[in-house]
Write a structure and sequence with these properties.
The protein has 215 residues and is an alpha+beta fold. The chain has 6 helices and 11 strands. The strands form 2 sheets. The protein has a 6-stranded antiparallel β-sheet. A 5-stranded mixed β-sheet has the order 8-7-9-11-10, sandwiched between helices. Strand 7, helix 3 and strand 8 form a beta-alpha-beta unit.
Length: 215
């Protein structure tokens, strides 16, 4: 009988030869192994389970659809601060990771425009060259958002269910929910009450105004 599930496995230190091999050799803990399980039931494939493991930090982030997100087998529970009223902007308080896809000159140019556009509008920018590890940190709210262009399914498969089970959003550049076929994504962490989608929408506005969404 044909299985209704498939798995995608990515060892960042092997698959990203330039940045990840260099990080690994230098002893920088900026690589991870990720495993995602995709269900083929229904109208479209959906990620139903994922594990991201950083062997240097011995940190494992995992999730099963509908059962929450875990860090080293301890459930991640984000505290939502009560606001007197929902904030209209949170971009300037956010730590953002920007992708830097090297496969195409057009994506590099889009990334460079994004850095220029956001540099003075956010709390800080990072360019960590590991999609899976970055998504794990978004799930943990260590990073508030991550966006990149031309991503591969094996880079983000595990992270998609992990971020969503942590309360975050995994979106296409037009704001709709991303799926395993998506290539360009904006990933945001669990929001405060009443601020759902706010950071994503602010990022989309800035990126669109500065011609960063197309390549």
């Amino acid at each position: 009988m044909m299985s209704s599930f498939i798995s995608l496995i990515d060892a960042d230190l092997a698959s990203c030869v330039c940045s990840m091999k260099t990080n690994f050799q230098a002893g920088l803990p900026l690589y991870a192994i990720s495993i995602g399980v995709i269900s083929l039931h229904g109208n479209r494939p959906e990620v139903v389970a994922g594990v991201i493991y950083n062997p240097t930090l011995t940190k494992m982030t995992s999730a099963v659809r509908g059962r929450g997100c875990y860090l080293n087998n301890q459930r991640i529970k984000h505290r939502t601060q009560e606001q007197h009223e929902a904030r209209k902007s949170i971009l300037n308080q956010s730590l953002i990771n920007v992708g830097f896809p090297i496969a195409k000159e057009s994506t590099l140019l889009a990334s460079s425009r994004a850095v220029t556009a956001l540099a003075t509008k956010v709390r800080g920018l990072r360019m960590i060259a590991s999609a899976s590890q970055t998504m794990a940190w978004v799930a943990q709210c260590k990073l508030h958002a991550y966006f990149s262009w031309d991503l591969n399914a094996w880079d983000v498969c595990a992270g998609m269910v992990i971020v969503e089970e942590s309360g975050g959003l995994v979106s296409n550049f037009d704001g709709t929910r991303a799926d395993i076929s998506s290539r360009d994504m904006i990933i945001t962490c669990c929001p405060q009450q009443g601020e759902e989608g706010l950071l994503r929408n602010e990022l989309i506005t800035v990126l669109e105004e500065n011609d960063c969404l197309s390549y």
